[in-house]
Amino acid sequence: MNDQKAETILFVDDEDSILSVASEFFKRQGYRTHTARNGVEALEVLKTEEVDCCFTDINMPEMNGLDLAENIRLLDNTMPVIVMTGYPSLENTIQTIKNGVVDFLIKPVNLKQMELCMRRVLRQRSLFVENVLLKREVKGKARLEKLNQELTYKVEELHILNKIMSSFTSIVSTTDVFKCMVDVALEITHAHNAVFHVINESVDQPFEVASAKTTPADGNPTAARSFQPVASPPTLSNLIIEVVSDKIPLLVSNNNGTRGLPPEVLSAMVVPLKIRDKVFGVLTASLGHGDVRFTEKDLYYLFFLAKSAANSIENLALYENIYENLFATLYAFVSAVEARDLYTREHSSRVTGISMIIGKQLGCSVEELDILNFSGHLHDIGKIGIRDDILLKPGRLTDEEFDKIKEHPIIGANILEQMGFWEKERQIIRCHHERFDGTGYPDGLKQEQIPFLARILSVADVYDAMASDRAYRKRMEEAVILKIINDGVGSQFDPDVVAAFMEVYHQGTILQYMESGHIKDADGHPVARASA
C-alpha cells in the first residue's frame, strides 16, 4: 500500500462466509472495511461512514443489490458499485448499468480479482467525478461524449465476456467444450473459420478436434450466419507451431505479404489453450474475404474464450475425479455389507439390473435410469449401521430387532446427505421400503407420495429377496414369488409397476438377466451387468 489514505470498502451479501472472507482479505491488504447483510443495513452504514467503493450481491432479502445501487446513486453518484452474482445474464448486465453499477463480477469471485477490479473502478471514479464537473460547467461536451462511448463499449464488453463465461456453465463433457469454443469464437469475432487443434509435448503434429465456419445465406455477406462443420479450413500450421513454442497469442493480417499466412487467409488469430501453464492445444480464427481485419480487441476476446474453456476442462476433470472417488467409496461400503452375508452377495447389483429392466418397460428417461442405477446399487448401504447379530440372524427377528432393521433406509439416506449427494437419490433410498397402502417404513408414505422410482425399486428388491437364498430360508419357487407379488398389488406395490414387471417377466427378460447377469437391448446386445 502507498502513503495515501486507505480506501474504505462496503461489502453487502446475505452469505456470512463471503462477508467474512472478503472483509478479512481486504483488511490484510490495508483497506478499511464494513459489512452488511442486505441493502437496508448497507444504507444504515452509509449514513455514518464515508465509503469509497461498494461490492454487493444482487439477490438479498429486504432490499436487493439493484435497489441498493439505485439508492447509492441518489446519495452519491460518484461512488462505484460492483455487483457480484452467480446468475449472470445480459438482462442483469443492462439493468445494473442503468442503476449506476460500474462493474459486474461472476461468483465464485477470486479475491485478487476483486481487488484489481476495485482499483480499476476507483481510477475510473476520479475520471467520472472530473467529467461530472465538466458537465455542470457545460465545458466538457467532447469528453462527455467520449465517456458515453466508453460506457457503451463497457456494456458491449460485459455482454461479450458474459456470453463467453455463460457458454460453458451447462457443459458436461470435454468434447462439448471444444465444440462450444469454436462456435462462440465465430459469434464474438465474426470470423469465417474457427478451429481447435490439439498439440502439446506428446503430439508431434497438430490435429483438429473441432471446427466451424460461417456461411452467408444465398450468397449475401450481410445475411445471418449459420454454424457448420468445415472439413478443410485454411492451414495455419506454421503459426500454430510458433504459438505453441512461445505460448503467446498471435494476430496477423495479410496486408503486405505477412509471413506465415496462406494466400486465402486475409487475417488470422492463433491463441494457446493452457492447462496448468502447459499448452494443450490452440484455437485459431481466420477471415478469408472482405475488407474487415481482426483487431487487438478480437484477440483479447479469443484469449479470454480459450482461458474460460481451459477452466471448464479443469473443472470437469476435478468434478469427475471427486465423484468417481466418492462413488468408489460408497460402492465399497455396499460390498462390505454384502461381504458380511454370503446369502445376499451382489443383491444390490441384481436389484439395480431388475429395476433398470422395469424402468425401460415403463418408458423412463435416460436421467431416470441413471438415478435408478445409482440408487439401486446403494439402496441397502444403510445396513452397514446394523449389528451383525441382527443382520445375520438365521431365525425370526424380535419386534425390537426388526425395528433396528427398519432404520437402514434412514441410515443410508443420511450417509449420502453427509457426502453431499443429490436429493432425488437420497429420497429413493429412504423410501424403498414404503408400501403403496401407507403401511411401510420409515415414513408411512402411500401411493403418489412415494417417489415413482422408489416404487420400481421396491418391486425389484422384493423379487430378488425371494428369488435368492437367505440365511433363514432357501429361495422360493418362481410361481410362489409371482403369486406374492400379484397379491401385493395395491397394498404393497404400485399396480402399474407390477404390470410392467409381469410383462417383462413373461417375456423372459428377468430370468435371462438373473441367469446371465446382463440386460440386453432390443437387438440382443448387453447393456448392463448384474454385478458392480
Descriptive account of the structure:
The protein has 19 helices and 13 strands. With 532 residues, it is an alpha/beta fold. The protein folds into three domains: 8-167, Response regulator (Rossmann fold); 174-312, 2-Layer Sandwich (Beta-Lactamase), CATH 3.30.450.40; 340-529, Hypothetical protein af1432 (Orthogonal Bundle), CATH 1.10.3210.10. The strands form three sheets. The chain has a six-stranded antiparallel sheet, sandwiched between helices. A five-stranded parallel sheet has the order 2-1-3-4-5, sandwiched between helices. The longest helix has 44 residues, at 296-339. The protein is globular, with a radius of gyration of 31 Å. Mean pLDDT is 79; it is low at 217-234 and 519-532.
How does the SSE layout of this entry go?
Layout lengths: L7 E5 L3 H13 L3 E5 L2 H10 L4 E5 L7 H11 L5 E5 L4 H9 L2 E6 L4 H26 L4 H27 L6 H16 L3 E6 L8 E8 L12 E2 L8 H10 L3 E4 L13 E9 L2 E10 L8 H44 L7 H15 L4 H13 L9 H4 L7 H7 L2 H11 L4 H9 L20 H15 L11 H10 L7 H12 L2 H8 L1 E3 L5 E4 L3
Parallel strand pairs: 1-2, 1-3, 3-4, 4-5
Antiparallel strand pairs: 6-7, 6-11, 7-8, 9-10, 10-11, 12-13
Helix pairs in contact: 2-3, 4-6, 5-6, 6-7, 6-9, 7-9, 10-11, 10-16, 10-18, 10-19, 11-15, 14-15, 15-16
